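Worked example 3. Consider a protein that binds iron/sulfur cluster.
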Amino acid sequence: MAVPRTYHLVTLGCPKNDVDSEHLERLLTGGELLPVIQPEAADAIIVNTCGFIEQSQAESMEAVRALADGKRDGQTLIVAGCMTQLYGGEVRASVPGVDHVFGVGQWQDVAKLLSVDVTGIHDIPERTAKVTGPSAYLKISDGCDAPCTFCVIPRIKGQLRSAPAGMLVKEAQRLVASGAKEIVLVGQDLTAWGEDQGMAVASGLPGLLRMLSEAVGPDVWLRLMYAYPSRVSSELVETMASLPNVVHYLDVPLQHGSEVTLRRMKRPHNLERVHGFIRELRAAMPDIVLRTSFIAGFPGETDAEFAELLAFAKAIHFDHAGCFLYSRQQWTGAFEMAEQVPDEVKLERRDRFMRQQQRIAAKQARRFVGKTLDMLVEGEGETEDHTPVVAGRTYREAPEVDGLVFATGTATPGSRVRVRIEEAGDYDLFGSIVTRK
Ligand code: SF4
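Given these inputs, the predicted complex is written out as structure tokens:
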């Protein structure tokens, strides 16, 4: 392979993959490779794949095949990430155009293959930081030690490894210096942060939040995604409520609302405890926004168990909730379980859940009407009658997964404005800009 000068990187999957890709890009640009938008213009094409569920594996394979089909002479196609960690041999065998395969966390090896001297790249030059919108992701840990029987992530990512606090503080400050107004903390399980370094649950994430809050200053939002239900402690609730820049938003994937199903999933199954910490969160932060996700059609799920899920979700009334179809994964405890649920039953249950959740989400959204909120502007445009309008997010909406706010007025993408909410849709809010900040 001739020494590559340009690369084209495709990232699939979740925000944690975005962070990994950004890390790889820093190595590549530090080695003076140039990113290009069109794959045909690249010397090296890299795909950072997702292997989480069958559907994401299929999407990753489709992307790899399309890039392999369009490859021209002299181009190198590299496939890396979660899917190849599990199925590297199969990817190579089924797509002959693939030149190199890497698993997860092998970004230095990818860079070395592309003739980058990674030993010379010690720090992150600010000019190469990639903050394109007002938000940036900060991956505080990787890997997971939980035994969830539907999940292949521990096999892909390995055991929990928390990033050192000092490094995270430095990284957060770099993101702010590059223009980020919101830092979204991600990891397989945020609330486990520090456990591998001997910290107790009560002191890990709350302590890190205090350090980050001070380091980034009061105007930069900190948002928490992926909290593990049994680790939402009183200390975490108090810390969130007391720090000025931790947004009142929490994503706690609960996966099910039946204790029997949760036991089979090997998930925390004390639902009274879940109701307890949700009461605590709402008492400490009456404006808190809660997101969760559930799985429909886990092996053995009966109609009665699914009805319990519906009742549980209705009782808590989450602002945002997703429902995934159970996906049978090799190397997981549930793979061999008897009583796999037929696809049509899974689909029907998921649809039933989403119909219920749509009504709940719309009702929850209406409580924002009449409020004036800070909003991060992500885009601008105009309505059919040429009224200028901006789209963005308040603390109620996490990037990429929740709805948006549309507000009449003008503002630059990346800026922050005050918006008065005048109307609520099922998922989005509508209003007008009252002041720019
Ligand atoms: S906590 Fe999340 S990442 Fe870890 S095994 Fe369970 S579902 Fe998978």
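Take a moment to read the result before moving on. The chain has a mean pLDDT of 92. DSSP finds twelve helices and 18 strands in the chain.
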